[in-house]
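A brief tutorial aside. Many learners find it easier to grasp structure tokens once they have seen a single protein encoded end to end. The record that follows does exactly this for Glyceraldehyde 3-phosphate dehydrogenase. Read the sequence first, then the structure, and try to relate runs of similar tokens to stretches of the chain.
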Amino acid sequence: MSNASASADQVHNDWLRRVAIAESMIPLIGGLYREKDVKPHIFGRTLINKSGTDILKAHRWARRIENGEAKVEDTLAVLELAREKDVTGIPLDLGRLIRAAYRDGKDVREAALEYFEKAENRAPQQPTDVVLYGFGRIGRLLARILIAHQGSGAGLRLKAIVVRKNGEDDLQKRASLLRRDSVHGKFDGTISVDKDSNAIIANGTRIQVIYSSDPASVDYTEYGINNAIVVDNTGRWRDEAGLAEHLKSTGVGRVLLTAPGKGDLPNVVFGINHEQITPDTRIVSAASCTTNAITPVLKKLNDTYGIVRGHVETVHSYTNDQNLIDNFHKGPRRGRSAALNMVITETGAAKAVSKALPELEGKLSGNAIRVPTPDVSLAVLNLTLEKPVDRDEVNADMRAESLTGELRNQIDYIASSEVVSTDFVGSKRAGVVDGLATIAEDNSLVLYVWYDNEFGYSSQVIRVLEHMAEQM
């Protein structure tokens, strides 16, 4: 046998060995999640409900660890120890834990044992009922995430959606739209329809479909729903007075708007100002997808370098409020075909940043260009800073923040000359800094931030929801 053949066999056998180890993790991960409310992940890449090859991909992505790719043997050892020590409800970022062990020259099991002994086991969170008012692009993605999260039986519990009825086959069409998505792919699991009780059953989660066009008229307790958080995805009401109509319905405790709020309504970007939500807070806004994408990056830059002023240009995928072909539209330019044109339009995202970061009040301007892609957008931050800045230094700061910083769940970082917009479909981070596109000269900095304006934003909404539930 030639050396080349022997080498190829060795690589293949090593791959099979690692796949076998990864597959042995699957029941461990499932048990920790369903029975102990522990959510294992590697630097934000979840391992729940993943195949063996998916788990290996998460490890390869974790080559950000200084010593190279995380070893699957080490991950398995930590998971086995977590089961052995009967940990409950603790955060488990395997990437950070293993990275720290490698950095400190410790045995991974020893480092994990120290972490588990110090970590405070939390009792599983009491279930909180969630109602989705509206079932469009964001509503259906929120449903997918909530259904996936209900495996542990704790935390957020999707109980109903509220929509206006559109024909006799409305229920079947709603289920079909949840099952199939042209951008995000097929639903991961099974979906069936109960016509008699007007419900959708998805992966064992029973979702009541309620038909109503009046937020104040539904008695949710009739469906076994109590003290629920209503997530308004319609955008029809964006001020406190309008959204307060939901609170008139029996069984509603709080309201979350998935659009920028008007007036004095709190606009919350999780990771930045979510601590504004207290037990007394009844209505909040999760701001916009663009505001969520850029605010964490701007905070990090402002804290490190100081922002004097800046302009935000968003290259944004088209949305449902635009026309497929030229037709009348109440807004300027948006009446022209979204599929055929780049369309300059206004955005309030730059000004909205100051609602979450008051220190940037009056420092940012913004504009938007809608482009003929269905998902994933790009924000270009053109900033003047208080002090000179170095490109490599900024990139290193962003990379470090994405791994271990306080905003690691919001900021991601990539340095690849091959990536394009579709590579970020399904990203759970609010924004992804493209390090190779960074431009720095003296006090000027241009930063490019990719963001899945649907799924990344929905992930931020879920984080706000979870925090609201903790305050109830």
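Self-check: The first strand starts at residue 39 and ends at 42. If you spotted this yourself, you are ready for the next section.
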